[in-house]
């Protein structure tokens, strides 16, 4: 597995990233897997809320649609909830347009989740769209609000 400048790795520390790269050495083809980090590597944050995390469904009344940092599209967010610690890590990788067989696309804390409904890479119809619609209708991401943001987010 190789990590490129396009790999989304800001959710993990260098030791966790090195472990992921080692764990997937020699892989080829697309994969999307969740596994537990060794205890020696500590945990990482997970912003996901909803049934997959053991929570009640997140209702539309509790949600705001805002772009997250680094995104051009609006995400389904719950304001003010904290990030949670987890040892579950999801790793997504596969071939790229340059002929590399195993590139790290993204790695994040928490279980697998489908692409967000507003993600421009999500097909406009079909099974992936239905899966995303069903999942994100009852899940959302935490967006902690700092005191200096509370008035601008209203």
Keywords:
single chain; 154 residues; alpha+beta; four-stranded mixed beta sheet; three-stranded antiparallel beta sheet; 9 strands; 13% helix; globular; disordered C terminus
Mean pLDDT: 91
H and E order = HEEEEEEEEHE
Structural class: alpha+beta
Q: What global shape is seen?
A: globular
The parts where pLDDT drops under 50 for at least 5 residues are 146-154
Total beta strand runs = 9
- What does the radius of gyration come to? 16 Å
> Helix content range of the residues, please?
10-25%
Describe this structure in words.
The protein is α+β, with helices and mostly antiparallel strands. Helices cover about 15% and strands about 25% of the residues. It has one domain (about 15-145). The chain has two helices and nine strands. The chain has a four-stranded mixed β-sheet, with no helix packed on it. The chain has a three-stranded antiparallel β-sheet with strand order 1-7-8, with helices on one face. Strand 7 (about 90-95) and strand 8 form a beta hairpin. The termini are far apart. Residues about 145-154 have low confidence and may be disordered.
